[in-house]
Amino acid sequence: MSIDTSTAAKVAKLARIRVEQDALPALAEEFNTILGFIEQLNEVDIDGVEPMTSVTPQRLKRRADVVNDGNQPEKVLSNAPDAREGFFAVPKVVE
């Protein structure tokens, strides 16, 4: 696939980039260079290659999923504007 100056102008308009008319041939050439690199990547045989997220194998650090209260009720309630008997106190909304 080859990009001409009219296609380069259309892409620039879609990207909301102002490109002067005399710069369109250079932009079209850059697009063609990028497409050439993509074509080179498409020639690589990737059959049997596992996808990876990093070049080094890593495992996620995991901890046991245990429900607890955090053992810090005083510290948590210190942020509350009003706390009573170990709970957040809020205004009554239902009468």
Structural descriptors:
single chain; mainly alpha; two-stranded antiparallel ribbon; 3 helices; 2 strands; asparaginyl-tRNA synthase (glutamine-hydrolyzing) activity; ATP-binding; GatC; Asp/Glu-ADT_sf_sub_c
Query: Gap between N and C termini, in Å?
Result: 71 Å
Structural class estimated from helices and strands: mainly alpha
Total count of strands: 2
* Average predicted local confidence, pLDDT: 89
Q: State the major sheet.
A: 2 strands, antiparallel
Q: How do the strands of the widest beta sheet line up side by side?
A: 1-2
Count of alpha and pi helical runs? 3
Q: What is the helix fraction of residues, given as a range? A: 25-40%
Question: Unreliable runs, pLDDT <50, ≥5 residues?
Answer: none
Shape: elongated
Write structural notes for this entry.
The protein is mostly helical and 95 residues long. The chain has a domain at 5-42. The chain is built from 3 helices and 2 strands. It has helices spanning 5-14, 24-42, 73-77, and strands at residues 83-84, 87-88. It has a two-stranded antiparallel sheet. β1 and β2 form a beta hairpin. α1 crosses α2 (24-42). The longest helix is centred in the middle third of the chain and has 19 residues, at 24-42. It is elongated and about 75 Å long. The mean pLDDT is 89. This is Aspartyl/glutamyl-tRNA(Asn/Gln) amidotransferase subunit C. InterPro entries: Asp/Glu-ADT_sf_sub_c, GatC. It catalyses: L-glutamyl-tRNA(Gln) + L-glutamine + ATP + H2O = L-glutaminyl-tRNA(Gln) + L-glutamate + ADP + phosphate + H(+); L-aspartyl-tRNA(Asn) + L-glutamine + ATP + H2O = L-asparaginyl-tRNA(Asn) + L-glutamate + ADP + phosphate + 2 H(+).
